[in-house]
User: Which sequence fits this backbone?
């Protein structure tokens, strides 16, 4: 056995170039995985603030219409009697917003003695005192005043989110002007084993929980909402991470194809040796073990390289997108999870690729039934992912199934081409070159498949990004209806707005106010202003939004199953329009000032839109008077918004490029194998007096043929995947849909990439030491 | 018989494991127009190397090779790659022991390839008729993978002669065939070469096959 392994390892030395391509391909794929993981960890750390400390251990929030404190006691009684075995804790919550002497704040009241870990020290809080977060800028023993009633800050705790105070239930009810039976929700801790599983999954792949919804826990007569979906910005961020994770895995899939392809080439070169060993009584298990061991060894080396380069890539990408997120924290150091994940990915790719290659080359072919079952299974997965579920993972499974079905079509397409090639006309040299390409369709299919997969993904993402950018620009054109935009950073700008309106040259001042509220257990951002025809046009309405009407973001419409003409539950406003709301982490609802007053929202205006003959004069005046106000001109807002948009997709572009490079390595391997097969033919051509130029033309023709084939296959597949990204992935991940409108660049850019990759690969030299098996 | 090819003081050596191994040393060879010369010698005696030198596929370390290319005599050792390629294309036909045929071209296409390269498609009828003479008329549209060893070598002969070269070089053309097939292939090769009055340099292990030649040159390495 030792000698068998030695023989296999020596083969790696005899085939150094393809060995190098395997290491390179896997290392790049691992880099992709590591880079995504590291950036995701960075984002996860920055998300810590999003999850309030009092919800840290909570799994779900439950409520029902007309919820009062006695409902909580009834539920707690049932739990104590052991009727609710899946629960390990319950905590009543009172939530709301209130105007204080320091602006509008959110108030959360919790029961510190309920057994659920909330904010440290809360149990010792005297009535009438509160816990504030550091961002509220109040010191211990200072007070927040509501009306004439002061509420003393007992201590400041860093885990309390910005703009919020946490207190006991009774104090919260007082602060919010509610009676002592008032209750908004009950926080519960349920299914701890599933929660642990989810936490484990999140460490393995940040964002996984956005795609993989655990089985819903139900409580008859109650509405149960997972805590993540009650925190839309957390769900939004996890969706972004899941998308990145899925894209980061693309390079790994392409690397699998590369390993499989190289495995096939190696086994073919060693076919005679392996047959002789079989004749000597060596079993398939022993041969396969030796073969897989050598691949796993390479995988280990590649994983080491990939971890280092992936970490470097993560830091570079993080710097590139700093303008967008400005996360303010560095990329975390490598930890055991990421190293283990990298190693496991590389080993898995090597084992899976090598196993399938060995099975194909050395074992009898599998039955026809299996060959049919696989595509049927993929079709079923695709159909279920699109129609049978609304989960993000289902959507990605559908995209993957479409891609696999597309790849499965490559081999039959190549066989068809082979049949055509045997009848083709034209110069004999050209015929020979083209036929060589399709002579072994099974071999080329893998390399072409890898490139098609990477290119189709590139086309899909380009189509999605182009369409998204086009919709985004259209949205900006609609929204940026004023010359200046002023953001008061929470400060009331009502008086400033009136002053500006009186200035010469100012033709219009539009005041905006808003706050967060909870509707059917969902947190959403409510904005109000005076909606006339012009303001309504900003959101795509043809006429002015009437009192009693509202405009909702597509995400809110989707979550509450609202359409135009429907009444919004709990507040009764009629939906008059739906807007995309690109980039909004939280669902949004817009209404007239009159409706805000009717609903009891505090009329504070913290943003202004201003039309002025000379905006620069206004900016100067505002900068002189306003502390901490952000004033931006229309063009600056537009430029910044588009810059942010482009930066956002920097990571996406880098990951797609990585997958393309891995695919190019695979294509190089395929052409290398082809060139090695051609060495004898080339020698024959030399003897017949075929010039180097003529042979180069044949090579170039073959490259063009590969390129044409790849583009022809990748284009429809990519556009189909792009349509799924726009119509399925985006709505499920972020709540908005995009109209697929691929521009010419969407098509030409990837075609140029394919041309470049094919040309580069064909220009690379065939290493002379890489000779077929000499045993 | 006027000399078609004349090599003088030919030398060739290779690096083998860090040591220089002389394969051909001060060898003189003359081949007359229409003459059949057999190169006989054990493995490693330099037969294939000599053929490659005569075809301009390798360059000698020393000595000269002069070839009559039709009206003019050229010194192969002084020519560039492009000129050597042109001469091989027009004046030389080559038959190898293995892998003679382009696997992705049919029998017909393999034979027509030298004619297409030389712009001599007017010879196509004659070249295809030779395939009938060689017993391959039922194999015209088959690819090499579907041919027997003998059929492949006969196709290779038809291709080597298709453009009526002045010199045919055959490197162990029967080494891969059984005795009966070997006899038949050599008979056909010699007959076709004689009918076209071109010269043939034939490398072989076999004294029987060498006996068909006008002259034998023994190489002993």
Assistant:
């Amino acid at each position: 056995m030792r000698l068998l392994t030695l023989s296999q390892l020596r083969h790696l030395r005899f085939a150094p170039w393809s060995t190098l391509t395997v290491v390179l391909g896997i290392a790049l794929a691992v880099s992709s995985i590591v880079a995504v993981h590291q950036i995701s960890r960075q984002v996860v750390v920055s998300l810590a603030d999003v999850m309030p400390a009092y919800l840290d251990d909570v799994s779900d929030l439950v409520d029902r219409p007309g919820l009062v404190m006695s409902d909580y006691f009834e539920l707690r009684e049932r739990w104590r009697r052991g009727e609710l075995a899946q629960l390990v804790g319950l905590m009543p919550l009172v939530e709301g917003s209130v105007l204080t002497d320091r602006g509008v704040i959110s108030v959360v009241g919790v029961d510190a003695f309920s057994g659920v870990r909330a904010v440290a020290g809360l149990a010792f809080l005297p009535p009438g005192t509160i816990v504030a977060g550091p961002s509220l800028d109040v010191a211990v023993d200072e007070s927040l005043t509501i009306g004439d009633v002061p509420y003393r800050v007992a201590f400041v705790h860093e885990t309390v989110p910005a703009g919020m105070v946490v207190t006991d239930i009774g104090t919260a009810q007082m602060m919010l002007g509610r009676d002592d039976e008032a209750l908004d929700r009950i926080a519960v801790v349920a299914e701890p084993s599933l929660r642990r599983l989810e936490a484990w999954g999140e460490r393995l792949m940040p964002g996984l929980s956005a795609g993989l919804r655990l089985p819903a826990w139900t409580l008859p007569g109650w509405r149960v909402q997972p805590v993540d979906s009650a925190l839309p910005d957390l769900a939004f961020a996890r969706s972004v991470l899941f998308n990145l994770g899925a894209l980061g895995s693309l390079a790994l899939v392409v690397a699998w194809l590369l390993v499989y392809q190289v495995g096939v080439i190696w086994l073919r070169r060693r076919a005679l040796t392996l047959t002789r060993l079989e004749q000597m009584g060596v079993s398939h298990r022993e041969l396969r073990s030796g073969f897989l061991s050598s691949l796993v060894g390479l995988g280990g080396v590649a994983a080491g390289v990939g971890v280092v380069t992936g970490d470097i890539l993560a830091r570079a990408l993080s710097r590139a997108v700093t303008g967008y997120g400005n996360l303010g924290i560095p990329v975390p150091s490598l930890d055991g999870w990421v190293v283990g994940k990298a190693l496991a990915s590389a080993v898995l790719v090597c084992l899976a690729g090598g196993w399938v290659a060995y099975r194909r080359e050395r074992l009898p072919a599998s039955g026809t039934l299996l060959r049919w079952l696989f595509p049927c299974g993929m079709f079923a997965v695709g159909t279920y992912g699109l129609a049978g579920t609304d989960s993000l993972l289902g959507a990605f499974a559908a995209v993957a199934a479409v891609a696999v079905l597309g790849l499965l079509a490559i081999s039959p397409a190549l066989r068809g081409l082979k049949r055509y090639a045997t009848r083709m006309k034209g110069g004999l040299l050209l015929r020979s070159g083209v036929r060589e390409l399709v002579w072994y369709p099974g071999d080329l299919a893998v390399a072409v498949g890898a490139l098609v997969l990477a290119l189709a993904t590139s086309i899909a993402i380009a189509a999605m990004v182009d369409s998204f950018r086009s919709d985004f620009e259209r949205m900006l054109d609609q929204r940026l209806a004023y010359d200046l935009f002023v953001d008061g950073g929470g400060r009331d700008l009502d008086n400033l707005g009136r002053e500006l309106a009186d200035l010469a040259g100012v033709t219009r001042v539009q005041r905006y106010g808003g706050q967060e509220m909870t509707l059917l257990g969902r947190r959403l951002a409510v904005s109000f202003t005076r909606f006339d025809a012009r303001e309504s046009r900003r959101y795509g309405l043809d006429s002015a939004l009437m009192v009693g009407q509202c405009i909702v973001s597509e995400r809110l419409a989707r979550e509450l199953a609202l359409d135009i003409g429907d009444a919004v539950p709990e507040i009764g406003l009629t939906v008059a329009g739906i807007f995309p709301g690109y980039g909004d982490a939280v669902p949004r609802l817009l209404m007239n000032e009159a409706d805000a007053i009717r609903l009891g929202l505090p009329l504070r205006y913290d943003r202004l839109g201003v039309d002025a003959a000379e905006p620069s004069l206004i900016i100067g005046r505002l900068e002189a008077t306003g502390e901490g106000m952000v004033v931006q001109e229309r063009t600056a807002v537009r430029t910044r918004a588009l810059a942010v948009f482009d930066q956002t997709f920097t990571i996406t572009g880098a990951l797609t490029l990585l997958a393309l490079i891995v695919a190019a390595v695979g294509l190089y391997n395929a052409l290398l194998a082809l060139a090695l097969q051609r060495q004898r033919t080339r020698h024959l051509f030399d003897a017949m007096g075929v010039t180097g130029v003529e042979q180069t033309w044949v090579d170039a023709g073959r490259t063009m043929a590969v390129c044409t084939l790849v583009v022809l296959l990748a284009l429809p597949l990519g556009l189909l995947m792009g349509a799924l990204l726009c119509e399925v992935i985006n709505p499920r991940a972020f709540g908005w849909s995009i109209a697929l409108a691929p521009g010419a660049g969407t098509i030409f850019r990837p075609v140029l990439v394919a041309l470049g990759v094919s040309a580069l690969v064909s220009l690379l030299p065939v290493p002379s030491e890489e000779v077929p098996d000499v045993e | 018989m006027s000399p078609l090819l004349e090599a003088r003081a030919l030398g060739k050596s290779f690096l083998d494991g860090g040591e220089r191994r002389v394969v051909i040393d001060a060898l003189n060879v003359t081949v007359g127009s229409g003459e059949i010369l057999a190169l006989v010698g054990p493995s490693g005696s330099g037969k294939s190397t000599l053929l490659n030198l005569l075809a301009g596929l390798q360059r000698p370390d020393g000595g000269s090779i002069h070839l009559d290319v039709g009206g003019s005599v050229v010194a192969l050792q002084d020519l560039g790659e492009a000129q050597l390629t042109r001469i091989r294309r027009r004046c030389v036909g080559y038959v190898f022991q293995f892998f003679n045929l382009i696997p992705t071209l049919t029998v017909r296409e393999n034979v027509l390839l030298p004619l297409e390269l030389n712009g001599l498609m007017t010879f196509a009828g004659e070249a295809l008729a030779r395939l009938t003479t060689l017993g391959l008329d039922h194999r015209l549209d088959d690819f090499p993978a579907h041919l027997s060893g003998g059929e492949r070598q006969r196709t290779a002969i038809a291709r080597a002669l298709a453009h009526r070269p002045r010199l045919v070089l055959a490197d162990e053309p029967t080494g891969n065939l059984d005795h009966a097939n070997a006899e038949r292939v050599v008979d056909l090769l010699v007959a076709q070469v004689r009918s076209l009055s071109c010269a043939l340099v034939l490398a072989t292990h076999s004294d029987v096959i060498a006996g068909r030649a006008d002259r034998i040159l023994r190489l002993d390495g």
The beta strands of chain B are 3-16, 19-32, 36-40, 62-68, 73-75, 92-95, 167-171, 199-204, 215-218. The two ends of chain B are 29 Å apart (CA to CA). Chain B has a mean pLDDT of 89.
